[in-house]
Amino acid sequence: MLFDHTSGMSKTVGMTTITQGASMGWQDFYARRDALNAAIDAGELRTSDAFPDEHELLLALHHRWTQRLTARVEQAELDSDDPVDAVGAAWRRTAADNEALRALLDEHANHLALRPLINAEHRALARAAGLTEPGDSPEEEAQIGAAFVALQRTAPPHPQRRNPVERLLRRLVPSA
Q1: What span, in angstroms and rounded, lies between the C-alpha atoms of 38 and 157?
Q2: DSSP category for residue 162
Q3: Ordered domains of the chain (ranges, CATH)
Q4: pLDDT digits (tens, 9 = 90+) for 74-117
Q5: Exposed, middle or buried, 81 (CB in 10 Å: 0-12/13-18/19+)?
Q6: Is the separation of the CB atoms in 106 and 118 below 8 Å?
Q7: How large is the C-alpha radius of gyration of the chain?
Q8: pTM, full prediction
């Protein structure tokens, strides 16, 4: 599982800063969710009462991305014997399913608020894919993870593998 073997990338990186450690009521939750959805739908950073500055909004957007990516990577790790393919496919599926969110984060990737989070994400992906060694420095892990993500961005989509029986039937029945 992704967070069993990573350090420095907690599930709530940045979020405790935004909420100042306070609990959030349902009204606050829905206001924040709506503000995030509005920013994603518009494809631009829109500050609001829920997110009074871009820094907080970017942290929350990245948190949403991390939640979705983490779920996919953890599931892929359980379902596959090849961690590189599994983690890569998980990243590509998450990016494809969250195109607007990914585009917004990519547009602001050099923002000071996102750099440490992106580096932590890259380190976690490199570790989950089995591309790093225990003695690698965090900087090396981040570079390996960044290269891995760059490859995923340019990788052709993998065709769905069909089971052998289905392939045989398709050959036998041309109209199938």
Answers
A1: 29
A2: P
A3: 2-157 (1.10.357)
A4: 998 888 788 999 999 999 999 999 999 999 999 999 999 999 99
A5: exposed
A6: no
A7: 19
A8: 0.76
